[in-house]
């Protein structure tokens, strides 16, 4: 199988992959590897350009993605000119890259390894090359990054092993006997050849502030296939999405990469500062856990039948609710996100600044109320039961929503100006509506039901009185605005019961915010960023939930085709003119929106329901 958009197998299709422009690969030329703790991005030219060790939010060991000249990289590449075919192994996060040169073929198999008991207590990045036809010569470069000159990597030999040091990270470079190495102070360079039936293995074992195990290379090689089988076993238990199964599984596997297993947090993405528009300044660090994304992802995991992952993420979310100050986002360990620091490296496509930290941590977004209650509602609708401590936390949260819904907030798009955003008010309505339903189901105590129901109805009246534009025949971004908000499509999933006005608003969004199959987030952003892919999936889902199944299917098919030139890993945004990916990746919000759109289409409900 070729990269998903290259099924024709033509030479021109293959040659589009792995070509660097000014030192940079296209974002769609990356595949993601992960082990439940960290994620590495492997380029189609055999270069791993991003890997934070030991965690997704650690400092990068390899950062060529943002610094093409000085950044760290781990390259395994044919010496001769080559073309590329790429795929994930079926229902797995093990990645295969087939290189073809003049007269030879070889396949590179890559894995962030796990063991028979789950995640390993160290980071193990394994890369195996098998010869297929002819003889192919490879060059290897393993060069740790300097962290914008904040660290000075060096090599040493300990116990006969090649060891590298980067600040607090200690790593081993391991290779099979056929790999001939030349060591410098800052890098390891190597060469090897493969022919039919021959194999070479190169691996890194790394950790931070901890002793390192030195596993036999044969065990590392074996764990590639063990990890592949573990992914397949997990995917086999996922809900069967019928004709959409392959796409559904691929997005579920991408979300699984972003589940930080030590805490249960869901990372929004595995990268920082990949720009939403070339030459702009919308470059953000997404290696944090948003309450919103956690809620949506839990819902998607439940839709996929991945109850263990949903439970882990829900437990993380409930711990955050129990804290005094509920925030928009947290570190993967549950702490407050640090202040923003700008890093002195060029950035992808020389679009800076590169940032660590996120300013949204200090914002308030009413959407967190709806996100949490929608998540809990879905959890109990699958036959699960809330404990008394969680129930009391939710009572306090519903009271807080009832008290504060009249205030302005930053909105789902985390805008610098606070407003009475329509979507935020709908989220408050959603929270109170779900709270009342949880009381009726016996999951929450009944003493506050009357108050919540009264405020729910007040919120709805306020929205209809202040946010509906007769002139536009649509709900606008906020009162006094004539702009539209594509996130409004989620109001169908939320069961906001104004079907005629919702339908008119969706039609207006299609007319004004769409370009081809994709949609901009809200009015006026088309010159500074790409289309937000999740919005397009939300629109398809909304059509399906409204009973417009054929229209939803057509939309989903067109979106899928528009994204099909990668290996199945989606970014945050896409340039509607070129199809080029933009923004951080893998982007959890995009993949979970994809899952929910497929679920809505294949369920055939014709309305937003809570069936599992």
UniProtKB/TrEMBL annotation:
Keywords noted in UniProt: Hydrolase
Pfam family, one: Glyco_hydro_15
Transmembrane segments: none
Domain GH15-like span(s) in chain numbering: 249-597
Domain of life: Bacteria
Domain Trehalase-like N-terminal: from-to ranges: 27-100
GO biological process, one term: carbohydrate metabolic process
InterPro entries xref list: 6-hairpin_glycosidase_sf, 6hp_glycosidase-like_sf, GH15-like, Trehalase-like_N
GO molecular function terms attached to this record: hydrolase activity, hydrolyzing O-glycosyl compounds
Protein name, per record: Glycoside hydrolase family 15 protein
